[in-house]
Amino acid sequence: VSRFDDYEADMPASTLSDDDIERLLSGAIPENDEAAQLVAFVDLIRAESADAPSEAVVARVATAAARIARSTSSQSALTNARPQRRRLGLRVRPQLVGAAAAVFLLSGVTGVALAANGAAPGDALYGIDRALEKVGIGAGHAQERLDEANALLFDGRASEALNQAAQVFDEAEEPAERFDDIGEARAALAEAAGRLLETEKGDASEILVRDNVSTLLDYLRENLGERVGDDGSDFGHGVAEIARGITPEEGEADPTPSPADNNSRKDDEVGGHPGGGSGNGGEHPGGGSGNGGEHGEGNGPPSSTPSGTAPGQRENP
Amino acid sequence: MTLGENFKPALDAAKAGADWAWAVLYRELAGPVTGYLASRGAPEPEDLAAETFLQVARNIQSFDGGEAAFRSWVFVIAHRRLIDVRRRKGREPELRALPDEVHHPGGDVEEEALDRLVTRELWLGLATLTEDQRDVLALRIIGNLTLEETAEAIGKRVGAVKALQRRGLIALRGHFEQNRISL
Asked: Chain B closest CA to A8's CA: distance in Å?
């Protein structure tokens, strides 16, 4: 019947019937000669079916998916309420958890890969400076995201906080040509998260990592939107500078990241912005002024710099 | 999918947020979903498959149906994610590179060479199809979706899916014939 349908009007001549095709595609041995000639093709395509993922990946995806499902089942009525302002200890929207978890998952994989490559810890956010420069993030709810991330961090959930920050990139609705740049920044953040996973084994360095992530988030929050349409290099450098210090050397307790040392020598601005080590003359890369009034809570969320250590650690002894 | 009578309990538990249930579902479907995404040129098919499942989790409360319906729903989401990626990339996906030469240990050399030749020809043939035709064939063969499920996944009528797969297969056969490849 179907061969009389209008869209088949110019169908090439063939003895292949729909039934033949069904048999072929379902893996049965076709009676039709033409179909029989295509069995190898079908087999080849079927061989594309990937193997089941490793149990480690299954577990990671399952954990994240279960968490999302739990949050949607208990709070489905609340899912659309987006917080207008930062609230400490706020419950992050389920969708956020989900999206952040996606980065989290992927970063877990990346982290393993990184470890296998023996990449230096300082490379955690390698490339993010360039990426951020190009992206010029600042649209949408970036500030909010980072505030939420800080709230998570305040709860001691450093990895989740970083992933939350990664959301900024997920949500940035950029022109198509920028997508690759965003992808680059996301990948960099994901790698950082991977490093965090590795570091978070409960040793002393965890606290340090948390402080450093806090510094990064704070810096991002305060400087987002500042560099749009600008050359952005200072911002990028600032991020990179902090990022490199996020994870300490393996087994090293010294909280002072070495890359920052080189630059902070010229930087006497004690207690200044964490980006101060970026070698741009001591003024923090975001420009410092003019963005404070934008977030009414001021620039110092409680989680931002617990005991002020993170920025301070970047200064010269 | 082979969960059978275990599907319903797994689905219920998944909705309630049980890790084990999601592990069961993912183990079952990640392979074909990843394969589908890979065959359709997704740059990072494993990641996209994971993202697909997180999307599934986000919407799981509103899903109601049996195993087959679940399977096709997952592919609907995977296909949409694929379209998103294509759109963001701003270009049509390239056909995936020719797979690495498969080494069959203990196989004889001549046979291997022949296999390679045939595989290569198959890939070249595949390249002559349209995107839609490849989508449909991949969903049918790798995803193991029915006509109706495939139609739903790509948002076309069943008749259109039939036409696409038929055209695709005929074109392929034509390619093989022209190049005197006997499979």
From this structure: 7
